[in-house]
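Page 47, continued from p. 46.
Same chain as before, 114 aa.
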Amino acid sequence: VQLVESGGGLVQPGGSLRLSCAASGFTLSIYTMTWHRQAPGKERELVATINNNGRSINYSDSVKGRFTISRDNAKNTVYLQMNSLKPEDTAVYYCYTPRGIGLWGQGTQVTVSS
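Result:
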């Protein structure tokens, strides 16, 4: 049972990345899923939330209008499309499910720099 994030990397300011979070060993379709990020020296913060059917979505003020969370339950995967990236978006990005006692992925590094 695990979550595996991918899609991170180095991108210039104003660029885009699409993160994926693939679940294995369980079906994530019944769970609300969230993306979080943690920058060096800072606490982990909630970035985006999507409910089980994708009809209820929320974003932190810092990413609203630039990031889009989505899910494909048939592929057992959740996505985070990140546009208009800023240096302050640099962080390790994690997905999370409340399944059981809660399950985190290992994280994927996003670096926004020229």
